[in-house]
Amino acid sequence: MRIILLQDVKGIGKKNDVKNVSDGYARNFLMPQGLARVANEQSLGELSSVKKNDEATEERLNRLAKLLSERELQFHLKVDKKGVVFGSVNKDEILNGLRDTGLITKDRVEVKIPKPLKELGIHEVEIHLPKGITTKLKIKIEAESK
């Protein structure tokens, strides 16, 4: 029986793959578990449009990653006379800064930094986008002018 996988199935294939499996395996395990559906003309047509949407989404995310790698976010922190920085820049502030630029809206974006940034200068942080796409973003921390 030809099926379309709705999720990754170990030993069979990845999501949206069209596979041939035994009738019993498909009817008694894969379909009741919601892991597959029958590959008929209609479902194959739907799969084609889903794959086109996935490709368009991935292309959009790659363009976003390129834009982010060329971008620099600026933050201003208070500094005393000796140059000691008060405060820090954390993941949430970076995400809010990205949202303020309008580059990200509803995408699930994760900022990877080991600890909040507390030093003046330029820092690179890793940004994880959906579909396993990662990029680097420059963060510039300057002293707040008085």
Total helical segments:
3
What is the annotated CATH architecture of the largest domain? Roll
Helix content: 25-40%
Structural class: alpha+beta
The CATH topology assignment of the largest domain is Ribosomal Protein L9, domain 2
Q: For the record, what is the CATH homologous superfamily label of the largest domain?
A: Ribosomal protein L9, C-terminal domain
The separation of the N and C termini measures: 73 Å
From the alpha carbons, calculate the radius of gyration and give it in angstroms. 23 Å
Order of helices and strands: EEHEHEEHEEE
Could you report the average pLDDT, rounded to the nearest whole number? 89
Low-confidence stretches: none
- CATH class of the largest domain, named Alpha Beta
Task: Give an overview of the whole structure.
The protein is built from 3 helices and 8 strands; from the N terminus they run E-E-H-E-H-E-E-H-E-E-E. By secondary structure, the chain is an alpha+beta fold. The chain folds into 2 domains: 2-58, Ribosomal Protein L9, domain 1, CATH 3.40.5.10; 62-143, Ribosomal Protein L9, domain 2. It has a 5-stranded mixed beta sheet with strand order 5-4-8-7-6. Strand 7 and strand 8 form a beta hairpin. It is elongated. The model has no long low-confidence stretch (mean pLDDT 89).
Name its key features:
Ribosomal Protein L9, domain 2; 5-stranded mixed β-sheet; Ribosomal Protein L9, domain 1; 3 helices; alpha+beta; elongated; 146 residues; 28% strand; 3-stranded antiparallel β-sheet; 2 domains
